[in-house]
Amino acid sequence: MRVDLYTNPHKEQREWLYQVAIQAGKADIAHKEAFDELFSNFTELLKDLHQHVRAEEAFVHPLYLAKNLFMADPLHADHEILELSLQDLSLQMQKMKREDSGEKRAELGLFFYRSFNRFISQYLEHIDAEERMLPFLWEAYSDEQLMLCILTYKASIGSDEGLIKIVSAFESIDKSSQQRLFKGFKQNASSERFGQFCTQLKVALPPNGYQDLTSSLL
Ligand SMILES: [Fe+2]
User: Fold this and answer.
1) What is the pLDDT of residues 73-110, one digit of tens each?
2) Does position 218 have pLDDT exceeding 80, yes or no?
3) Contact, 9 vs 56, CB < 8 A?
4) 112 near 99, Cβ under 8 Å?
5) Could you say which architecture CATH assigns to the domain 7-137?
6) How far is the CA of 80 from the centre of ligand 1 (A)?
């Protein structure tokens, strides 16, 4: 079984999207409590979708870019279009939140239900396109290289175990992969987390190693 950057997170997202769609279809949005529950689930889902896109842009698209300058363009364009739909859905949610009349909120809720399902159809096409790229990634990269992406991603979002592993493995990684992972970490992490990564790398790399790495990125 090859290291798979897409399938499991996408399975979780499909499940979550369907759950929110079912809730949006069944909940009586005229009731404030039912709306608040939908609002909170949608907000959590939105956060997850944003983090997922950030991670793909930081760690997966550079894998395509390293082999072909234009290969990630369609996926990147999808991300931009999907973001517009998410912004529209968020605005609809905000409008419902401000609405005091249960009747009007229920009307807006029906509109949201249809828009959200339309978004799902867009999103399903996108993640299917990504999953169809897996054979390319398996052809172009070893499992070890793909696993380093997962490890660096986990370290960038707060896994201390991941941070220890990636820092200790860093010296043995080839230079262009070091640069790719370092840039991905910076792009995906908070500035505080990125600071921790840099501090540990300075200690772990041989003298001038850290400086060589960062000056090669200027
Ligand atoms: Fe994506």
Assistant:
1) 999 999 999 999 999 999 999 999 999 999 999 999 99
2) no
3) no
4) no
5) Up-down Bundle (1.20)
6) 10
Domain spans of the chain? 7-137, 142-215
User: In angstroms, what is the span from residue 98 Cα to ligand 1's centroid?
Assistant: 31
- Distance from C-alpha of 216 to C-alpha of 189, rounded to nearest angstrom: 20
Question: Closest by alpha carbon to 56, among 76, 86, 84?
Answer: 76
Identity at 16, one-letter amino acid code: W
What is the model's pLDDT at position 217? 83
Split at pLDDT 50, 70, 90, the class of 216 is: confident
156/151 Cα distance (integer angstroms): 9
CA of 28 to the centre of ligand 1 (A): 32
Sign for the pseudo-dihedral over CA of 96, 37, 125, 121: negative
The CA 191 to ligand 1 mean position distance, Å, reads 23
Tokens 């070091």 — which residue?
Answer: 178
Tell me the CB-side half-sphere exposure of residue 155, using CA atoms within 13 A: 30
pTM attached to this predicted model? 0.92
